[in-house]
Design brief:
Shape: flat
Structural class: mainly alpha
Number of strands: 0
Helix content: 40-55%
Largest sheet: none
Order of helices and strands: HHH
Strand content: under 5%
Radius of gyration: 23 Å
Oligomer: single chain
Amino acid sequence: MAKNKIAPKATMARPQPKRHTRIVSLVSEEENRIIDEYLKKYRITNKSNWIRETLLAFIYKNIDEDYPTLFGEHEMRR
């Protein structure tokens, strides 16, 4: 009787580099309660990942909106 051989799991490359830098922020008890209720309501289980993605999405949006143009807003509206 031959044994069933299990193929070794293929490892995938990490899509993101390892995170080594820590950012610490303090919030009030009320702010923490609001965040926790939001995470519970939308069934978000990874709080740090959600905070990181939310923060970076806000930053990327602002960078995109503030992108320098050849002409100023006033000149373009003429």
